[in-house]
Amino acid sequence: MQIQGSWTQLDKQNRDKKTVSVPVSELIGVEEGRVEILPQKKVEESEQHFTVFSVKRGPRGAGSAGLWAVGRTLFSCSSRDLRDHWVTQLRAALRDRSASRPQRLLVFINPFGGKKRGVQIYRTLVSPLLELAGISAHVVVTERANQARDHILKKELTGFDGVVCVGGDGMFSELLHGVIGRTQQEAGLSEHDPTETLQPCNLHIGIIPAGSTNCVCFATVGVSDPVTSTLHIIIGDSQPLDVCSVHHLNTLVRYSVSLVGYGFYGDVLAESERHRWMGPLRYDYSGCMVYLSNRSYSGVIQFLPADPKFSSPRDNTRCLSGCRVCSESTERLFPQSDASSNASFYSTSQYSQDSSQSDGDWVSVEGRFRCVSLTCMSSSCPRSPLGLSPAAHLADGTGDLILVRDTSAMGFLKYLHRHTNTQDQFDLPFVEVHRVRAVRFSVPPGEEESDEEEDGGKGTEGGGDRAEQECERDRPERKSISQQHLAERGVERGMGDDRKKKERGLFFGPCCSRAPSVSVWNCDGEILPHTEILCRVHGQLVRLFARGIEDGARTRSCRGGGRKCKGRCVLHT
Ligand SMILES: CCCCCCCCCCCCC/C=C/[C@@H](O)[C@H](COP(=O)(O)O)NC(=O)CCCCC
Ligand SMILES: Nc1ncnc2c1ncn2[C@@H]1O[C@H](COP(=O)(O)OP(=O)(O)O)[C@@H](O)[C@H]1O
Ligand SMILES: [Ca+2]
């Protein structure tokens, strides 16, 4: 749509322009008079004016790739009739798009996520924009962990076009479990069967970032910004996302999108839970503490490699909005559907996830590792702008398995540090990365923590043992989500013993005498109660109100350390 005429462009930078083009798909709303929305709604009545709100790309700069703001254009007409005509036409154009935009949302706010600003963020930044766009929202401020997940699993959802969380990755995970669980229940499928082809979910998920890591938001939008995310929801963007299921024996343990991590990331999470009062800083503090403890763990990893002809974790590409690798995967995952449209998503009966899943041989790797990580996407976040695996794809049906073998403290620091800059963290002799469809992990025989080891020394070696017992007494409760979730799903069989072993091991530190022989799994910020797990990637299982990171020179992966990229990458602008 092109609008021409006598009007005032309020954006100072564009004051001299005579014409502004705004795609209807990026219109947010139209109001009569001179109207401002943010930071506060202000209306100045005028018979000749109307104000158009649309998506405006933010300023370019480090960390702001993908930042959107609300563009505001004031139109001045020669008569009230002409003004009313324009307003009517623009509102009709918006109505025409209503099929592809949400009309009614179910919003869950975690008042305790991140810096505890969820409610304020929703009230001041999100709600006014939804109102402007004519979207109604049913808002639930949560009072306990798992409330959002349970609501989605059990309550009536008819009439909602999407569910939205205001919080962090843990809150997103609640929605993810609710939406996937509900969809499988309705389809009569068992989530506990690790070979089941799961039904893709129709209900879109929106994320308003208000947590500590905000990895899922950052990796699917490009920034961690509540206004940008709200605008993606309003215009009905749709981004498919791979999901990894984690099973122990024949029981579903959890789903993950960003990180299933053993060793360093598991230990950081376990340590960080004791310092929740620090807010997002708990991860930095715990990261330092765990790094200083210098641990590595034995493990046997088996994985099913993905077909290397489609992509590789070291091909130096980035998964950007409209990614070719992901689109071609859609064609493979939904062979009978029109891959260019949303039909593939809504016609879920056409889903044929696993035509090639049984093909190929498992590869086995054994050794001592600093960390073992599996991620379905890049897992970029403000701490690591290119992420755990910069070339991973959001929706290609694969995950990247990163194996960091035991190395010197300096070597591991080098590896970690490369997450914060543009150097290749895989270009180190003790690191390997594989694009995979499934992963199995076990502890080599004889390396499991035995009861003997647990009790070992108690009462035999004096002081050191007392210190260890004190560590245990000081241990805080774990987050309740996994416990409740697992208990409710009947997973508690044998869990007590397993968890006891790990919790004993976790708090080895200055006051403890013996390093633990097993770590714990960090699954999108939740500690798993099992060590031996099977992970499987389910291509495009859910959809987010997002579009991936928008193309632009500065969003490309930079391996030039600032020289080759000439300042065009996300880190060097
Ligand atoms: C010398 C500098 C070292 C810096 C290392 C940076 C590595 C960062 C990789 C981050 C990957 C993040 C994957 C996402 C995990 C989240 O799901 C999880 C829970 O988040 P939230 O619900 O918001 O609390 N976050 C973490 O597990 C934090 C990992 C931090 C590790 C330092
Ligand atoms: N009202 C609540 N009280 C306590 N915990 C909650 C509440 N609402 C959600 N949670 C839980 O808090 C955990 C952390 O939330 P999240 O929003 O991800 O913040 P953060 O990123 O700071 O960890 C999630 O696992 C979620 O299940
Ligand atoms: Ca993927």
Low-confidence stretches: 1-7, 339-357, 450-513, 553-573
Could you name the CATH topology of one domain?
Rossmann fold
Each distinct ligand: ligand LXC25N3T, adenosine-5'-diphosphate, calcium ion
Arithmetic mean of pLDDT: 82
Query: How many DSSP H or I helices?
Result: 15
Largest pleated sheet? 10 strands, antiparallel
Note the gap between the termini: 32 Å
Count of distinct strands: 22
Helix content class: 25-40%
Question: What's the CATH class of one domain, please?
Answer: Alpha Beta
CATH architecture of one domain: 3-Layer(aba) Sandwich
CATH superfamily of one domain: Probable inorganic polyphosphate/atp-NAD kinase, domain 1
Helix-strand category: alpha+beta
Q: Tell me the Rg in angstroms.
A: 25 Å
Strand content: 15-25%
Tell the overall outline.
elongated
Protein name: DAGKc domain-containing protein
GO molecular function: ceramide kinase activity
GO cellular component, one term: membrane
Pfam family, one: CERK_C
